[in-house]
TrEMBL record:
Keyword Isomerase: yes
SMART domains: Ala_racemase_C
Active site: 39 (proton acceptor), 253 (proton acceptor)
Binding positions for substrate per the UniProt entry: 129, 301
Keyword tags: Isomerase, Pyridoxal phosphate
Taxonomic lineage: Bacteria, Bacillati, Actinomycetota, Actinomycetes, Pseudonocardiales
Modified positions (N6-(pyridoxal phosphate)lysine) in chain numbering: 39
Pfam families registered for this protein in UniProt: Ala_racemase_C, Ala_racemase_N
Organism: Actinokineospora bangkokensis
Protein name: Alanine racemase
Amino acid sequence: MAAHNPVRAEVEINLDNLRHNVALLVRRAAGADVMAVVKADGYGHGAVPVARAALAAGATWLGSCSLAEALALRAAGVEAPVLAWLDTAGTDLAAGVAAGVDIGVSSVEQLARVRGGRVHLKVDTGLGRAGCPPPLWAELCAAAAASDNEVHSIWSHLARADEPGHPATDEQARRFAAAHEVALAAGLRPRRHLANSAATLSRPDLHFDMVRVGIAMYGLNPLPQPEDLRPVMAFRSSVALTKRVPAGESVSYGHTWTAPVDTTLALVPVGYADGVPRLLSNRFDVLLAGKRRPVRGRVCMDQVVVDCGDDDVPVGAEVVLFGDAARGEPTATEWADTLGTIDYEVVTGMHRPRVSRRYA
């Protein structure tokens, strides 16, 4: 059946599913505060609507990456506590302090740029990215204790929590405990946060005072075992044209697929400019007219071609490129597995000029 209003390229964001996921994570956090991470425009889902839905479902904090992201939340009227943790050396942090944004700090030099604000001191426990190296941690804690800033928390980030039982997580927990002792010795009384989505679901011993949930909030499971998470994003288009082609006809650039029998092809007006990776050429299905059907030939900038066999598929019919497996739809995780990447990259990649966003 043709869609009522055929779309070219649209992501639908199901905020009911997001609220379900956040409520589940709040229950699993068992009394710890829950920071909903809405960086990168809410992982491509829209930071402000996601933030409001997450807070309504029980999250108590928000997490951004840049100060600009945090200030955009404030400009939209979002008043919940928000932490910003990564900016360039030239970023003026005074606007963040004035707006009540908490600032992540990994060095004495960064601390000196925050005046009269609330800070979260980050220690590198083994991820090797941001965070103060352990040999410099005591110096940072002492400087923070002597500054005019309020130290809210110490924190770190886990490298392999999505691999349950991996010893690296226990080693990071040990280093984090040692860093906490150093902070206490410096006269600080900080709260602690370490757990990401995977550790929120699998390591209650690491929940401490707050957990930070990202990918699980968006319904994508970071763990190998099943969880009751519901996908929040679906990517849709519609059939723009159909044609019958004879056996022996080839499809798209390079003629990488040739029809072995007479078949019907459906043209769908989305391509790599709209978030469909070219590396998926000849390697993925869509849901069209109640069936999963293969995409044939190379993904182009603006279009893909779907093999419909002998079925009569009308122009305007809805095409689901990824969505909810429970409805028989392909998923963002399937794309990621085929590409050799992670589903985070798939959904954040949907923030594109020609892709509209609709909230349901």
